[in-house]
Amino acid sequence: MKGCMEKVQFLKYAEEAYYNGSLTIKALSSGLEIGACNWNILSPKGNIIYLSGSVFASATATSFDYKALERSDVLLYSDFTACNDVDGEKNDFPPATGSSYSSNIGSCWETIPESWLDSDEYSEEMEKVSFICSCALDTISDGGSVLIPIGRPGVMLQLLENISLSLESSNLKVPIYFVSSVAEELLAFSNIIPEWLSSQLQERFCSGQPLFTHIQLSNEKKLFVSPAIHSSKFLTSWQEPCIVFCPHWSLRLGPVVHLLQRWCADPNSLLIIEERADIKLALLPFEPMSMKVLQCSFISGIKLKKAIPLLKILQPKHVLVPESLRPHISCWNPKFSVHSFSENETVVVPKLKTFADMDIAMDMASELLIDTKMIQGKNIARLKGELLIEQGKYRCVLRNKQVLSSQVRPLLFLGRVDLDSLLMALKKMGMKVAAQHAQNTDGSENVSLIFISEPNEALIEVTSTQTTISVGDETTASLVSEAVRSTLVCF
User: Fold this and answer.
1) Res 119 pLDDT > 80
2) DSSP H helical ranges for 170-303
3) Distance from chain centroid for Cα 352
4) In sequence order, which residues have a C-beta less than 8 Å from that of residue 38 and are 6 or more positions away?
5) Which GO BP terms sit in this record (predicted)?
6) Mean pLDDT of all residues in the chain?
7) Chain segment 239-291, per-residue pLDDT in tens
8) Please, are residues 66 and 314 in contact by the beta-carbon 8 Å criterion?
9) Which residues contact 83 (CB under 8 A, 6 or more apart)?
10) Average pLDDT over residues 48-67
């Protein structure tokens, strides 16, 4: 686990990170949660947008930055909220024909998202928070305790702030506990990332006000933050009735298990959890359950009625959507191509660009005009320099005449894979291999497959235009890469 976490790179809002010189990766706010992202991945051959669960208006997180996702080459639509709407809306949306759908709504699609930023969804969310607060107050007034195992930080911070204000206005003095091994870090983190917070909270930050009320509540001894329920800080401050925020939403691990066992037989106490289909199964270990249960649902993504117009606004060239969404999008006859994906399935996307752009140093550009030959109707010029790939771009510079980056650049190799030589090289490395020849499903080209079973499993797919290596561990990947490089046949 430690070795895995050491490979994690932290990014600021809209900060560009570079992978292997060939990819530029940027994190953009999705609006769903504080720090929740959509991703823009740029390569020399085009850019890919990964669109996750997104929300146009949020009380805590920065708004959905959809404008930064416009006009991509490929958009991977991974917000599954619309999939949940399909069954409920299949009888009336979208219309049976794309033409009627377009004529009725298409003319206003260019301006719809601006109105979505002030949509009723935000008001509904605040009404839900107010209702939860009223239920919590009623429970405290009846002498019961409130248990809130909600895992979304933004929702938790909203409830914490609104419940504390409701208690103060009602003159009810009961302690609030936040019990988690990362509780202190989470609360501290929420005060140092204003770029990921909503515009209302950023205004607080600029005016010098605290972003959230938990610091004031802790100073006033109204909020007690503890790493575990067996900690001395928790035990010495424990008092009932009370309100407890703690993990885990599954009700199978963490402090919530012990607190549910304590209060499950109390009809005056209240459990507040996010709405789920398996609620009876989740509560089964705590039967007989006399404790009141309040299920609440919060916005977790883009609804179907907004998903389709959003794609019209973003104007990607190719869109990959979950299988259940494809008929709803295809019937609209969009200008972009639509592909569907499902679990454990490889999707082949058309080539984004036939050629890649390359920046050539000024002192080399003049050579293009001096030594040029006409071959098969094309002007060909020979350049002698160093081919680099940095920040997602190809560059050609004169050797020893360009101040290069001090960072170690990835090595680039070019050539054709000789299958027999590759098999021999892998066997010399002690690998157990087997080869198989096949053909693409569309019959376009032959494919040679090399299966590696020992010491670890790997797969090498070789075609006339590309070689794909699929492997699960770095050691095997390094060995396979070395074998491929050693057997390349240069053109």
Assistant:
1) no
2) 183-189, 199-206, 214-219, 232-237, 255-263, 279-283
3) 23
4) 27, 28, 29, 30, 49, 50, 51, 52, 54, 64, 65, 69
5) snRNA 3'-end processing
6) 82
7) 999 999 998 999 999 999 999 999 999 999 999 999 887 899 999 999 999 99
8) yes
9) 322, 324, 325
10) 88
Would you state the structure tokens that stand for residue 45, as one six-digit string?
């051959």
Token readout for 154 is 């933004």
As beta bridge partners, residue 77 has 51
Asked which of 105-114, 158-167, 202-211 is least confident by mean pLDDT, the reply is 105-114
Q: Is 463 in contact with 475 (CB distance < 8 Å)?
A: no
Q: Enumerate domains of the chain plus CATH numbers.
A: 9-114+301-341 (3.60.15.10), 120-296 (3.40.50.10890), 358-397 (no CATH), 416-489 (no CATH)
**Segment 131-183, tens digit of pLDDT:** 999 999 999 999 999 999 988 888 999 999 999 999 999 999 999 999 999 98
Q: Decide which of 210 and 114 is more confident.
A: 210
At position 42, the amino acid (one-letter code) is L
Cα gap 239→412, rounded to integer Å: 65
The amino acid at 464: S
The three-class DSSP label of residue 175 is coil
Spatial CA neighbour of 266 closest among 301, 241, 295: 241
